[in-house]
Amino acid sequence: MAKKFLSFLGTSDYKECTYIYTQENREIECTTKYIQEALIKALCDDWTSDDKAIIFLTEKARKNNWTNEEVIERRLEEKLKHNKNIDVVDVSIPDGKSVEEIWEIFDILCANIDDKDEVIFDITHSFRSIPMLALVVLNYVKVVKDIKLTGIYYGAYEAKELVDDKEIAPIFNLTSFDELLEWSQAVNSFLKYGNSMHLKEISVKTIKDGLKNGNKNYQEVNNFIQRLNDFTNCIYTCRGKCSKDINKNPNTKSIKIAYENMEKCLEKIQANKNDSVKPLVPLFDKIQERTKDFKNADNFYTGMAVVKWSIDNNLTQQAYTAFEETIKTYVCIKFGLDETIKDHREEFAAKALKIKAKNISEDKWIIAQKYRNDKDYRETLKNIVSGLDEEISKLSDTLSQKRNDINHFGYKDNVLSYEALNCDIKNLYERFNAYVEHNKI
Prior knowledge:
The chain contains 16 helices and 9 strands. It has helices at 35-43, 59-66, 76-81, 99-111, 130-144, 175-193, 197-212, 217-236, 255-271, 280-290, 299-312, 316-334, 342-358, 375-387, 390-407, 418-438, and strands spanning 3-9, 17-23, 26-32, 52-57, 87-92, 118-122, 148-155, 161-163, 166-173. Strands 1, 2, 3, 4, 5, 6, 7, 8 and 9 form a 9-stranded mixed sheet that branches.
């Protein structure tokens, strides 16, 4: 593990100018032909001999600007190796004039980056396909070698200005573009798989840096990602109930509450006109579109949304759990019961569904001790049983069997394959969805 500065040296006879890099309210200047010299001065001043500046050279770049035998001012090797703080290494690469040579450059780049390195990348003199290739390599080694990209920089000679007879050129920090790429990948992962962990990891890293630099706009982004993470984890753990008795940490106990608070946080970001946050808004709009089924949903429609979400994101166990409980919610609402009360769900809705599905005669009903002498209870249960359609009771019974198959870890007779479980949940959901359309509550 080390800090590494990576740069490509070109072949041109570069013109001298004064590069300026602004960092934490101070300006660092370096008058030179070579952006590498300026960047190393600005960014690597506190590095040690364990760290490296790696300059990638084609044969022509080496001849023209690294070891030029005719023009002293074009010997970058001598300029850089005067810096005793870090180890300066030159690495030969092909010209990149064919696909094979581009792959060779890819391999060389990867070989010069080690596990957990902290990498600064200079793209100023990168030629042809190198900038694109560099981004691919950097994102590749983030995964393969767990590196940390600490900066991408560009010396903007073409943006120079004449100040007091001195040509001044800015150094642009382009790291935010790589961060935007990572945000895009994380949002895409969420849209495809319903997983918010990548977004949370980026927010912890990026937002920490943003707040450190005094950008309070990132706090709103952090709040949104945290609420999104609450929302997805509530789905993973089937926190489908929303009721008045959820007071402490409601974001972690209710899908509906987590969603509503996520929406409030997103509205603040959408109204924010800050340039650092603005590129993220269209990405977050996609998340809003993906989760729209949860908007203004009561307990029943939250359940339906969770079943669909779980099916779409291959969360089969969550789908079965949410589905069986959502049918109970449907029965409670249909027959005027409170779906948030346990006895209403289990002693009325669940029991009535089982009696109807199994066609159990009244004399064989298993009644809880506390209700055995309660005539009102028995009468209510009879009304629900008689009012239930066979379609919904059979569907509930099928769901219960398959949910048990999953919850018993496959330790049952006639265990189902995962293909069957995945296929069946889709078919059962479509059946119930069609049923609800014709039997609205």
